[in-house]
Write a structure and sequence with these properties.
Layout: H1 2-27, H2 30-37, E1 50-51, E2 54-62, E3 66-73, E4 80-86, H3 94-113, E5 122-127, E6 134-139, E7 143-145, H4 146-151, H5 158-177, E8 180-181, E9 190-193, E10 199-201, E11 208-209, H6 237-253, H7 263-272, H8 284-293, H9 304-317
Antiparallel strand pairs: 1-2, 2-3, 3-4, 4-6, 5-6, 7-9, 8-11, 9-10
Helix pairs in contact: 5-6, 5-9, 6-8, 8-9
The structure holds adenosine-5'-triphosphate and magnesium ion (MG).
Adenosine-5'-triphosphate is lined by residues 60-61, 63-66, 68, 82, 120, 138-141, 145, 188-189, 191, 202-203, 205.
Length: 318
């Protein structure tokens, strides 16, 4: 009898618990709706992924906000293209989407100004209707990034190094003529062609117009100008010249101009204005131009044309 009573109480508790759960679910129908409303961010993945007129081949990189894919045009010439796709942001976030597409618009302006300049060519920057994904389609450059070359410690001759920097200076000359500051001149954003002599500038994701320059802390600390790392620092086209000087220093000397474990320490070193001397056996005039490019005072730095003039002279001699 005592056992029967206990069994009845247990069954009653179970039934009551089930009733409570059902009631809770009925009283809180939003929970289900909430999850239903949470749209997933579409990703450019799957069996047959297509964005706009391009079909994905393989992922080749991951950026701060975007993913970089090698893709093929589905119509016309069926050329290889590179797609930069904004995958971390929901398509409804129009503000982030438009901001992302800015990169494509800036590059288009540069392409239209001088199509022969060594700046990557943009085909289109758009939002894909079916997926809502924002993307920038650009030409595929058959080469490797200068960062890749430096990481692999692949040998480049002095002539090749100067040729690469000269091409970036040429790209900057066109950008700076439009008052566009690239703001992220670094080896990862320079694609070296198969011939190792030429290079093309990519990644205008943090580029800005000089008149509305606010890019505090943005860029690669190893190559960033002192003013970019300074709160309230005034960024000008000369900030890119400093970064190109840092790339040239790295290529010639084999080390960064400033190296430290922490970003803040690197920035403090840059702000001190002291640059280690170039010790490698290269012409004194080349050491001088590197020193000038890395001047603390932007006014002391040469402009892109002056860099081209100096480097063209060295290239002929070496
Ligand atoms: N047009 C291109 N042709 C060949 N390779 C490319 C091209 N664009 C980008 N890449 C490759 O993808 C890498 C990353 O591209 P990119 O520098 O534009 O973006 P990111 O730095 O990764 O992203 P973020 O825009 O967030 O800074 C490059 O270092 C290069 O290896
Ligand atoms: Mg980059």
């Amino acid at each position: 009898m005592a056992l029967d009573n206990r069994l009845i109480i247990i069954i009653a508790i179970i039934v009551l618990s089930i009733v409570i759960i059902i009631l809770k679910m009925q009283l809180n129908p939003n929970k289900k709706k909430k999850n239903k409303g949470k749209k997933k961010i579409p990703a450019f993945k799957g069996e047959n992924p297509v964005i706009g007129n391009y079909k994905k081949v393989v992922q080749i990189g991951t950026g701060g906000m975007s993913t970089i894919y090698l893709a093929k045009a589905t119509h016309g010439n069926k050329k290889d293209v590179v797609l930069k796709v904004l995958e971390n942001v929901k398509p409804e976030n129009k503000q982030a989407g438009e901001k992302f597409l800015e990169e494509g618009k800036i590059i288009k302006r540069i392409n239209e100004k001088d199509s022969s300049a060594p700046v990557v060519k943009v085909i289109e920057s758009n939002q894909d209707k079916p997926t809502g994904l924002y993307f920038i389609a650009m030409e595929y450059l058959d080469g490797v990034s200068l960062k890749n070359i430096l990481d692999r410690k692949s040998e480049l001759s002095l002539k090749e190094k100067l040729g690469i920097v000269n091409d970036v200076a040429w790209a900057l000359k066109i950008c700076h003529g439009l008052r566009i500051c690239h703001c992220d001149i670094a080896p990862g954003n320079i694609i070296v062609h198969q011939n190792k002599k030429n290079a093309t500038l990519i990644d205008f994701s943090i580029a800005i117009n000089e008149s509305n320059a606010k890019a505090y802390g943005l860029g690669n600390p190893y190559y960033m100008s002192p003013e970019q790392g300074k709160r309230g620092g005034v960024i000008t086209v000369k900030s890119d010249i400093y970064s190109l000087g840092a790339v040239l220093f790295h290529l010639v000397e084999g080390i960064f101009p400033h190296k430290a474990g922490k970003c803040n320490t690197i920035m403090e070193m840059q702000k001190s204005g002291s640059i280690p001397p170039v010790t490698k056996p290269v012409p004194t005039e080349l050491k001088e131009i590197i020193k000038k490019m890395l001047s603390l005072d932007p006014g002391e730095r040469p402009n892109a044309q002056a860099v081209i003039d100096s480097l063209t002279g060295f290239i002929k001699k070496v």
